Every structure is written in structure tokens, then in C-alpha cells.
Amino acid sequence: MTLTTGLSPKCTPTYPVVATTPLVTFLERVQETALETFGEKDFDPKFYVDLSLKFNLSKTEKAFDSLPRSGENGTVSIKDLQEFIATYFDYAGDDLLYYDPVDFVPEPEGFLPRVKNPEVRAWAIEVHSLWKNLSRKVSDGVHEQPELHTLLPLPEAGIVPGSRFREVYYWDSYWVIRGLLASKMYETAKAIVTNLIFLLDSYGYVLNAGRAYCTNRSQPPLLSAMVYEIYNRTCDVELIRKALPALLKEHAFWNSEIHKATIQDAQGCNHNLSRYYAMWNKPRPESSTIDKESASKLLDNSVKQQFYRDLASAAESGWDFSTRWMSYNLSTTSILPVDLNVYILKMELDIAFLAKVLGHKSTMESFLEAAEARKNAINSVFWNDEMGQWLDYRLTNGTVCKESETWQACNQNHNAYASNFIPLWIDLFHSDAALVEKVERSFQSSGLVHAFGIATSVINSGQQWDFPNGWAPLQHMIVEGLLRSGLKEARSLAEDIAVRWIKTNYAAYKKTGAMHEKYDVRKCGEFGGGGEYIPQTGFGWSNGVVLAFLEEFGWPEDRSIEC
Ligand SMILES: OC[C@H]1O[C@H](O[C@H]2O[C@H](CO)[C@@H](O)[C@H](O)[C@H]2O)[C@H](O)[C@@H](O)[C@@H]1O
């Protein structure tokens, strides 16, 4: 990846870092040696930080340091390294056990009642059955000796995305849950929420994923949305009682000093908004060799550290990587993202709703107020009337600053991204029909709407969160937003996109036998590519969105599933 960094601190900030474990640091050394020894072909750096120890760390480190090395670079031979790994480690993923979900039945009662076409119904049942393949529980060994594992000891079973993503991921879980609800697997959905609350209680925020190397960052905050959806189906008040204190903690995290920025508008009004900000300034351990290579041309140490922080912050955004975070250079932490602030607005509305269910009137009122303020902030800072879109905003002061800065039109990013339309997902933005119509028109002509889904952006950068990739979560939020907007035309556009998305997922499944992490929106049945790892299958959120779409729109008997 060719990335550079921009650092323009005009204040004296504190740059927080959450220390990692000695095991993670050691596994990064193994990862580096493995790249030197085995070479780049089929090399996945994440595999090495997912290994678990058979013996204690000091014995393993001693054996590693005693491996014979030759040549100028001190290279370990393939045979010695293979033997060392086989002797001292358990295979990546061995500490996660397949788990039969307690609430799985092959065809649940009342499953997708509006899917009438037999071919589509048979496929939906297959997609539903994939929950069994993706269900995992942390092994007893991890609970007994957590120091031997980078996998974190989560209390409950969960659903993983699939392939190299062996562990639970934060924002993926929202769409997994939407699918589980269509599959009537309420207990599995609640168990996922219990795990995320466990992480929140343990760290003060929900981690990017359930690994020791992810403790320095979160991911798009959708826990409240998960609780809201589950409650709407189950009326489980106990779940809310458990979740609400945790959600208050999460809200404070995303409004903390490092995450908050204040923008003053032309009328002199201050608006608080949030940004991604990872508490880390080194290579991401799961991609350490890649990050070091990307940073190799940066000589100044503080510039390098800021670059690593911006890489980790992009991972926190879930959009790792995208031109959204790169204008002249990589500067994730200098950007106020539209979607993050929509998620936090949703969190505020959800908390108000959940507090009302519990009769906590003052919490409800204060969160309704917070939501109103954020809605105004989103409209003041992100809205671009000429384009009819909400645009990411670049901070001039960049890094951690307390002062507010004055809004400038030129700081909005005018490129079309799917994230520019995520506000549609929130009912609060539907009150003005003329505005919704304008946004819908702008969306239609943005270049993002393609034959087989919504592209992430219009820029073909080679990064995975750019053109021509379409990602299930983005299809879902925009389709759901259009659907709920109340406009007839928007509703039919929503259905049209959902139908084409289902068709391409189906075609790819028939061709490859798998559900994919991302799809190429230009061609039916093509999965996506780009980025720093090979395309993955499984796949949690894609399965979830197909099931949620089929539940919402159904599939008439006489509609063909072929492209
Ligand atoms: O290993 C590289 C990066 O992989 C993850 O990101 C991608 O997969 C996640 C799981 O499906 C998904 O949540 C994310 O949006 C994808 O970009 C991981 O989340 C990153 O932290 C990691 O650096």
C-alpha cells in the first residue's frame, strides 16, 4: 500500500496508547521471521498472531531465540521454522470450538413466510444452515490459561464472520443478529450481545474483535442497535436492564476527549461530533509486516507513530482501507465521519428508547436532547445542499485538540461514498419529504448505484472499501433507509437494489459454493477483491443481510432468481 501521513499538531495533545501483551509482541516476531523464511506467497500475517502456545511464553521464546540462523539477515530455514511452529504452537483457530447453537432448527417455524419461490426458499434454508458452520465457543483452555492465547475468553458462544476472521467482530455482529432474528435464533443473538457487553465492561469499550491485539480500538458502535432489534422481537426487559449501563459507558467513550471535536458554524454555534481514534501508535499486530513496509519510507519517529495510529483508526472505522481516509495522505484521525456520527445518533435514540422502557425518565430526556444536538451538528457540519448529500469533514487542527475550529466549506470531502447516504437510515432525517426526495435523486445520480448493488465509492483505488466493491452492511442500511423514508419512489428503489443484491449473492453461491465477504457490484455472481488479504468466505454479515432482505421483501413464486 502506498500511504503517507499528515501531521499538523497546532495544540499540545496527549496521544493515548493501550499497551499490548508480551505474547502479542512475541508473535509479531514469529510473523516477521515467517515472512522472511516462507516468503510472500500465501502469507497471511494474521495467522501468526492467532497461534496459541503449547508451553509458557518464556520457554517458547527461548526455543525461538535458539533457532539456527544463517546468512547476513540471520534467516531461519523452512524446516526449522516448520518444526518449531509444530512443536510449540497449537494451530490458529484450535482454541475456538464448533458449537451447536441451542436454538438452531433446520427450518424454523414461520421462517421467511413471504419467500414463495421454491429455488429461493431452498437456498435461504441453506444460508440459514450456515449459522451452524459459523458458530463458535472459546475453548476451556483459553479460560484456564488466557496468557497462552491471543483469543479473549468470551463467556458465551457467538457467530464469527468466517475464514481468516475466526473470532467475533463488533460491527459485523449487527448484521449477523439481523439474520439470526430472521432465523428465529433469539438465544444466539442474545449471547452475542452478552459477549459484547462483557468486552465493554472489561475494557470500557467494545473491542474491534475478540483478540488481545484489538484492545486498542473499537469498531462502528452498533451495540445499542443490536439490543434495540432483539428487544423489538423478544420484549426481553432483562436484556435492556443488563445492556443500559454498558451503553452509557460506550456513549461516554465515543464522546471522550480523543474522540470529540468541536466545530463552530457561521452563526457562532458550537457542534460536538465524534471521530475514530485508535489508542495505538505501532503497526497493527495482525498486519505488522504490511504496516512496517508501508511506513518504511517515513523517517521521523513521531510522523511514523501518527501514521500507525491512522492505520489502526481506519481499522476502527471498519473501512480498512478506503480513499475516504486519504486525501493527500492517510489522516483518519483528522476526519469527522458521517457514518460514525449517525451510529452515535442512533445510539442516543436507542438509549432514550431503552431508558423509557425501564422508566428512567431523566436518562431518556437527556439522550433525546443529545440526539437533537447531534442531528443539528450532522446537518450543520456534514450537509451539502448543492450535492444533496452529507459529506465527511476534514479537521484543520488534525490531531487531539480541545479548541473548536471554524467550519469551512472546503473541508468537506466532495467525493461520493456510500457513507454519504447513511443518515437516511435514521427516521429523524425523514421528516422533510422534499429533502428525502433530493437525497434520493442525488443517490441515483451519484455513480454509486450499479447493476448489482451499491458501490462503496466511485474511486477504483485497489483498496477494499472502494469501487467496485459492494459490502452487505452498506446495502442494508441504505435500502432500509430508503424503505422507511416514506417516499413511494424510494421504496421501489430500495426493493430493486435488494433484489439485485440477492441475485448476485445467489449467483456467486451457485458458482463457488460459498457466501462472500464483499461483491463486485458491476457483475452478477462476482465476489469483490482488493485490499491486504485474499477475499474471504463464510460470511456472517452477507448471510445476515440476505436473510433480512428476504424477510423484508419476500420472493414471489414467479420471480426468477437468475440475473
Ligand atoms: O486483518 C486486517 C483487518 O481485518 C478486519 O477488517 C475487515 O474484516 C472485518 C471482519 O469482517 C470487518 O469488520 C472490517 O470492516 C473489514 O475491513 C479487522 O476488522 C481489522 O481490524 C483488521 O486490521
Automatic annotation (TrEMBL):
Any GO BP? trehalose catabolic process
Indicate yes or no for the key word Transferase.
no
Q: Which domain of life is it from?
A: Eukaryota
The EC number of this protein is 3.2.1.28
Asked if the keyword rRNA-binding belongs to this entry, the reply reads no
Stretches that traverse the bilayer: none
Query: Which one Pfam family would you cite for this protein?
Result: Trehalase
What the entry lists under PANTHER family is as follows:
TREHALASE
Protein name (record): Trehalase
Which taxonomic lineage is given here? Eukaryota, Viridiplantae, Streptophyta, Embryophyta, Tracheophyta
